[in-house]
Amino acid sequence: MTSFGSFAAPSFWLPGNFQTIAPATNWGTQITVNYQGNAAIERDVQSEVASFGKQLGIVTEAVLALAGPLTGALDADADAKEKVVRLATLAARVDAVKARHGAAIETQIREQVQSLAATDRDAADRLLQTLRRELAESADPDDKPV
């Protein structure tokens, strides 16, 4: 089945490859996108290599890095400059959302560890030691979440 809001159509009605995107909403809707790719490959790339967000983040970083040295040239092309500014603004907004979510997660984890420590101090210490070790082992600059 292919879903369009509350309407579901059998996939045989619509030709092509479909990919389900499940945005976090309160109303539980999934969006199905028809594209000319191989759904199995796209699914494997997302699960084994990088999510769409991570891929877009890397492309955004590269474009902004390439545009940086061209600041003077962009002053002469208002349209190009506007597009780079829009991309930089979008990237800053994405970073703000990530920071907000990171702060909320940090608060939740702190409260949970404090609760564990109040119940079982040794278990809390073991958990913190395990987390420190795992963080040290996974310190990969390219492995930052997007």
Describe this protein's structure.
With 146 residues, the chain is mainly alpha-helical. It has two domains: 1-49, no CATH class; 50-146, no CATH class. The chain contains five helices and four strands, in the order E-E-E-E-H-H-H-H-H. The chain has helices at residues 39-48, 52-67, 71-75, 78-119, 121-137, and strands spanning 2-4, 7-9, 17-21, 31-35. Strand 1 and strand 2 (7-9) form a beta hairpin. The longest helix has 42 residues, at 78-119. It is extended, with a radius of gyration of 22 Å. It starts with a strand and ends in a 9-residue tail after the last helix. Residues 1-15 have low confidence and may be disordered.
Q: What's the SSE blueprint?
A:
Elements: E1 2-4, E2 7-9, E3 17-21, E4 31-35, H1 39-48, H2 52-67, H3 71-75, H4 78-119, H5 121-137
Antiparallel strand pairs: 1-2, 3-4
Pick out its properties:
4 strands; extended; two-stranded antiparallel sheet; mainly alpha; 2 domains; disordered N terminus; 146 residues
In brief, what are we looking at here?
With 146 residues, this protein is mainly alpha-helical.
Task: Give the CA-CA distance, first to last residue.
Answer: 30 Å
What is the ordering of alpha helices and beta strands?
EEEEHHHHH
Total helical segments? 5
Please tally the β strands and state the result: 4
- Indicate the radius of gyration in whole angstroms: 22 Å
Give start-end ranges of low-pLDDT stretches. Answer: 1-15
Characterize the biggest β-sheet.
2 strands, antiparallel
Please indicate the count of domains.
2
- What structural class results from the helix and strand content? mainly alpha
Helix content: 55-70%
Give the spatial strand order of the biggest sheet: 1-2
Mean pLDDT: 80
Our estimate of the beta-strand percent is: 5-15%
Shape from CA axes?
extended
